[in-house]
Design goal:
648 residues; alpha/beta; Rossmann fold; 6-stranded mixed sheet; 18 strands; ATP binding; ABCF_ATPase; ABC_transporter-like_ATP-bd; Probable ATP-binding protein YbiT
């Protein structure tokens, strides 16, 4: 469908990638991976046509349409949320007008037997079919589905987009993009502004998307759930793996071990050759051999190993000074901004050494709670207190953006460092992958991931016994996230982390506080236990709502469309999946029983079927079929029980 042919892109005389080629096929689910700065976002812009390559070309058929979601984009603020979302269907307006005009023209004519009349009817039929194929007539429903799935509430649909934060406006742009249904979706970090439930909805949507997908993400779980092909950009080359991200990591490790062995052998060969040249350079009898070895070196294709893989990002937080046993305690804590209620009834207790996650929809109060603890926002209800000798280290969600862009990486740390640690600043920066001349870079030229690492390095300069981290992994690559996670697991202080990154939280936290619909609820256990419990609670809510909704529909003609669309869709999806499983097993049992019946007929009349009834292979096949039927019957019982359980 889309062909990338020998594409080269250079910056400042250095190739970002060189002569890379691959195909994007229909229904492809591609995860584009590589370290920060490898050129992933640039490659998307090359495919889109926003960046002209320095060599090669991208071939895109005329009928193929592209949809692109960048990490940052300009958004429009002149309409309501729903009106802005409906603008995704502007391509249907011309088609809708054509249908109206043709209908009006046909209605004004009475030459029913003429060829012109027949042609008009055919044109109207084609236009109508095309219109409905593109989603015409159901624009409001599809817009509602996308907005609810991405976390908006119905009462927010008429709010002006200008009243929402940048993250929420990005969600509107994502909704518009999905509703346009381009042939190929190019998504650059789409989960950065989404909460856990919205990410799960997006996963489901993308799995069923009829077009192709090229996705950049640092969310390992999201990649695994959505993609089945992984393209890595490394050292200016692309490596194409026909598999999901987790399997790619294993294959990449094997590839790199082979690469490292080849690199080691080549370096030994180079050293031996250079040694030979030096020893015999001035001996006339060896001049031919020396010249031959020099030419060999000149022609040698040097094997490179990515520096990222050779380095080691060892982050170790300073030992935490001892605090009181209870570090944070809030009682009926609440916050409102004027008439806007954010949350209330927050009864939160965090003890020394605990690692706790705050999760929930954006705008439900997680960051606000953190800012209350920091004294940046006054609370409007209840009370809270910090324990004895608590010293807070705080990483704000926009920490990476509020650093002074006009000073260097080194100066950023030097301005806050005191005492003997000033002598170790270069070592600390080296641990965060800032080496050599990179420490003299201005902050303004750093990527989002580099700024996050620098902000985290700055946080480490002082010993804290309570770390409050608000979305610390946004823009960090997977390797940096893994090493930060390990450092936090080794940290002996107390941790409060706001995050939507399921893989990052998994194994790190032992308690979850969920901010939802203005209240705060405690969940004991890790993030996986929380997600499993949350899903069960949602299904139970649906079961409770189903009976009254049906009764209302029967009594007063009110449809059950008033239920939350997202919850109903999830429940219906579970039902359909279970029904399909039962149906498929039943078909397989029917097929196997048919084969057994044929073999019974053969054994009953062997001469007519020209078989030997004593043939052991026949009995082996017959017994295998019988065993398969038993296994499938067992599967059917389990699947049927699950279906009945869902149906209540």
């Amino acid at each position: 469908m889309i062909s990338i042919n020998n594409v080269t892109v250079s910056f400042g005389g250095t190739d970002l990638f060189s002569s890379i080629s691959f195909m994007i096929n229909k229904r492809d689910r591609i995860g584009l991976v590589g370290r920060n700065g490898a050129g992933k976002s640039t490659l998307l812009k090359v495919i889109l046509g926003e960046r002209v390559p320095d060599g090669g070309m991208v071939a895109i058929p005329s009928e193929v349409t592209l949809g692109y979601l960048p990490q940052q984009m300009k958004v429009h603020d002149t309409r309501s949320v729903f009106e802005e979302t409906l603008s995704a269907f502007e391509h249907l307006k011309a088609l809708e007008k054509e249908v109206e005009d043709l209908t009006a023209e046909i209605g004004s004519r009475d030459d029913y037997e003429s060829d012109d009349y027949a042609k008009l009817c055919a044109r109207l039929s084609d236009a109508n079919e095309h219109y409905h194929l593109l989603g015409g007539g159901n624009q409001d429903g599809e817009a509602e589905m996308a907005l609810l799935g991405l976390g908006f509430k119905r009462e927010e649909f008429e709010r002006p987009t200008s009243t929402f934060s940048g993250g929420w406006r990005m969600r509107i742009e994502l909704a518009k993009l999905l509703l346009r249904r381009p042939s190929v979706l190019l998504l650059d970090e789409p989960t950065n502004h989404l909460d856990i439930e919205s990410i799960q909805w997006l996963e489901t949507y993308l799995k069923d998307y009829p077009g192709a997908l090229v996705l950049i993400s640092h969310d390992r779980v999201f990649l695994d759930n959505v993609t089945d092909r992984t393209i890595e950009i490394s050292l200016g080359k692309v490596y194409d793996y026909k598999t999901s991200y987790s399997h790619y990591v294993e294959l990449r490790k094997e590839r790199r071990e082979q690469q490292l062995a080849a690199y080691t052998n080549q370096q030994k060969q180079i050293a031996d050759t250079e040694d030979f040249i030096e020893r015999f350079r001035y001996k006339a009898t060896k001049s031919n051999q020396v010249q031959s070895r020099i030419k060999q070196l000149e022609k040698l294709d040097i094997i490179e190993v990515d520096e990222e893989d050779n380095s080691r990002l060892n982050i170790k937080f300073p030992p935490a000074p001892r605090s009181g046993q209870v570090v944070i305690e809030s009682k009926e804590l609440g916050k409102s901004f004027g008439e806007k209620h954010v949350f209330s009834g927050a009864n939160i207790v965090v003890e020394r050494g605990e690692k706790v996650a705050l999760v929930g929809r954006n705008g439900e109060g997680k960051s606000t709670f953190a800012k209350i603890l920091m004294g940046e926002h006054p609370h409007t209800e209840g009370e809270y207190k910090l324990g004895h000798n608590v010293n807070i280290g705080y990483f704000a969600q926009n920490e990476a953006d509020i650093m002074d862009g006009n000073i260097t990486v080194y100066d950023t740390l030097e301005h806050v460092a005191v005492g003997d640690i000033r002598t170790r600043l270069r070592d600390i920066l080296g641990a965060f992958l800032f080496r050599g001349e990179e420490v003299d870079k201005k902050v303004m030229v750093l990527s989002g991931g580099e700024r996050s690492r620098l902000a985290m390095a700055r946080l480490m300069l002082e010993p804290h016994n309570l770390l409050i981290l608000d979305e610390p992994t946004n823009h960090m690559d997977m390797r940096s996230k893994d090493i930060l996670k390990q450092a936090l697991m080794d940290y002996d202080g107390t941790l409060l982390v706001v995050s939507h990154d399921r893989e990052f939280l998994d194994g790190l936290v032992s308690k979850v506080y969920e901010f939802r619909d203005g209240v705060v609820k405690e969940h004991l256990g890790g993030i996986q236990e929380f997600l499993a419990k949350r899903k069960m609670e949602r299904l139970q809510e649906l079961e409770r709502k189903a009976a009254p909704a049906q009764a209302s529909a029967n009594a007063g003609g009110v449809s059950d469309g008033k239920q939350s669309y997202l919850e109903k869709k999830e429940f219906d999806r579970q039902i359909r999946k279970a029904e399909n499983t039962v149906t498929n097993i039943e078909k397989e049992i029917e097929r196997l029983e048919g084969e057994v019946a044929k073999m019974d007929e053969m054994f009953a009349n062997p001469s007519a079927h020209n078989i030997d009834p004593a043939d052991p292979e026949l009995f082996k096949k017959y017994n295998a079929l019988k065993k398969s039927i038993e296994e499938k019957m067992y599967e059917w019982e389990i699947a049927h029980e699950e279906l009945e359980g869902l149906k209540g």
